[in-house]
Specification:
By secondary structure, this protein is an alpha+beta fold. It is built from 6 helices and 6 strands. The radius of gyration is 29 Å and the shape is elongated.
Length: 214
Amino acid sequence: MRISIRLDSAAAKAQLRRWGGEFRAKAHKAVARGIASQASEVKQAVRAHVASSLTVVKKSFVKGFSAKVLDRDKNRLPALYVGSGISWAGVHEYGTRINGRMLIPLHGRVGRKKFKAQIAALMRGGNAYFIKNKRGNIVLMAENIKDHDRTLAGFKRRYRKAEGIGKLKRGDDIPIAVLVPRVALRKRLNIERLVAGHIPRLSAAIQQQIETLD
């Protein structure tokens, strides 16, 4: 069925434009309210998913994920933004492959800046050398000497724990990192599926707000 409307007066056309503009503004606010009512729930669900799926060292990483209403453009209906302020967080959602030789710390995690400074200190002190282990991997080693006790403290502690070793002797070789030609990061998050599961409730919340308009 088709409905055709013909307006014969300028006043009638102006009234239709005013009504359309007023309703559009009301609908815009109603959609924003509907989204806002669900944004906090979505945010908490996403953060819980990230915390349970990844081994998180810094709480700020989890808090970087947010869900908020995008409502600046008055010519478009509001939208729900779900994402992270950390630019590289998406690699955990989709997975990726990084080519190029890289040093990966052994026996635990080390912050990028701290690890770089530690390697630089060992290099300057002449206490960093590569060996090829039985598996054919290129491993960066350091000697357990007094001059580098502070730099090696974390590496020694993690190495002892991983290998079940008691006390290390002076002159023992400490494995620091492994040199790899590339790194493949597998998909570990599924935020898209999680958000998709909230769409029915989000849609119902928006509809509820729209139905209140007169």
